[in-house]
Design a protein that fits this description.
With about 425 residues, this protein is of the alpha/beta class. About 35% of the residues lie in helices and about 15% in strands. The two termini are about 30 Å apart.
């Protein structure tokens, strides 16, 4: 993950401070300071780091763990040596336990020393009550590499108490509302932390007591228009350890988050900057690098229109990915944030477009499905006779067929982004 940097300030802050232009200079400078997480040093809420820090790998992490425990002992909470439950979003959890991964989700409730340690994905207040209870009843929370923006926090509805959190960034550790330690590498810190943690299954046991298994979507009638939840029921059955999932910006975020990934199954999505069309290029790069996996991409029609030309390179590189193009006639996620006629897009002949790009060169197979029977047949063909082809399956869905998570996420993000500005 790349963090904002102050290295480019000389190029982006055009005003040189004088006695006459303070407000203009401040308006240009403050966003960079906020992006780098350094406002606390200006207002005194963050303690100045030590002037001398050890850079030795095996010493740095130990020193911070000691400071974390000293800080914890000053509060009526257990120290990490006695009780810990971790929440994270990066591969560095591997430093805690090699055979457990925490890829792809916004935040993961994680018991690093228990079997089946990933309990749930957390997306702010839109999750089930059992999820929210399990997280916010924990004494200490450890975050690895989080970015708490309007999207990942669901319109800032993520009810985090900073005094209960230890936030670990790639080169910095912040403990509650107290000290921050710079020049500490995330992997070094987590490696040392893993050596000191003791097994604690309290949160997991609490979650199991109140957890209710999710149901299955109702069976479709013969010829009934295809529902999105039925599509993802069939995608779930396709997943193996040799698969990977790419989730495009939009409702695919929330539908793919509910997939249960087998061991070894890859998963990629990007919520931090919400780039529409990201997944087409991401699919191209992922499939080119992970030649041992067949990649399944779930892409909306609006997103596909932004970067459709990357299909040409996929064919030239002889990739065999499966693209589910979900055609619901517009930018559905934008409708939920701020509706308007600009969210209705020109419909394309998507299979015809891909066939035209194919132009008889390379291995490509396309089809359009409108009901479950056609979807089942298409998946059977894509995973059977056409397993060596780039398979493009256009799924026709109703424009209002969205997940309940998107409906609430959109309303909360809309409310957060339409609030009056906060003068600085």
């Amino acid at each position: 993950m790349v963090l904002p940097s102050l290295a480019s300030l000389c190029h982006t802050v055009m005003e040189k401070l004088t006695r006459d232009n303070f407000l203009v200079w401040k308006a240009q400078l403050l966003p960079h300071i906020r992006a780098a997480g350094m406002t606390g040093y200006l207002d005194g809420s963050v303690k100045e780091p030590a002037k001398v820090l050890s850079t030795e790998k095996d010493v740095a992490g130990k020193k911070v763990i000691e400071e974390v425990n000293n800080y914890a002992r000053s509060y009526p909470l257990p120290s990490f040596h006695d009780n810990a439950t971790c929440i994270g979003s990066t591969d560095d959890w591997i430093a805690l336990r090699q055979d457990d991964h925490a890829d792809g989700c916004s935040y993961l409730l994680y018991n690093p020393f228990s079997n089946g340690s990933i309990l749930l994905a957390l997306d702010g207040i839109i999750d089930k009550a059992t999820t929210v209870f399990a997280v916010f009843s924990i004494a200490w929370l450890l975050f690895a590499g989080p970015i708490f923006n309007d999207y990942s926090s669901v319109g800032y509805s993520f009810l985090l108490k900073k005094e209960k959190a230890v936030i670990v960034q790639p080169d910095r550790v912040t403990v509650g509302n107290g000290p921050a330690f710079g020049c500490i590498m995330m992997k070094d810190f987590l490696t040392e932390l893993g050596k000191r943690l003791k097994k604690n299954t309290t949160a997991y046991e609490n979650y199991k007591r109140i957890w209710v298994p999710e149901g299955q979507p109702p069976e479709s009638e013969p010829g009934e228009p295809l529902r999105v939840n039925v599509l993802f029921k069939h995608i779930q059955k396709m997943l193996t350890g040799d698969s990977a999932v790419i989730a495009e910006t939009g409702d695919s975020w929330f539908n793919c988050q509910k997939l249960k990934l087998p061991d070894g199954c890859g998963y990629e999505f990007q919520m931090q900057y919400g780039s529409i069309g990201w997944s087409v290029g991401a699919l191209l790069g992922y499939a080119q690098g992970a030649t041992d996996k067949r990649v399944i991409a779930c892409i909306g029609d609006g997103s596909f229109q932004v970067t459709a030309q990357d299909v040409s390179t996929m064919l030239r590189c002889a990739q065999n990915s499966i693209i589910f193009l979900i055609n619901n006639g517009g930018y559905t996620i934008e409708v939920e944030i701020h509706d308007g006629p600009y969210n209705v897009i020109k419909n394309w002949n998507y299979t015809g477009l891909v066939d035209a790009i194919h132009n008889g060169e390379g291995n490509c197979w396309t089809t359009k499905v409108t009901c479950e029977e056609e979807l089942t047949a298409a998946i059977e063909t894509a995973t059977g006779d056409k397993k060596d082809c780039l398979c493009f399956i256009e799924v026709v869905a109703h424009k209002d067929d969205t997940s309940k998570e998107l409906l609430e996420w959109g309303s909360r993000v809309s409310a957060a982004n339409s609030r009056p500005p906060n003068p600085q």
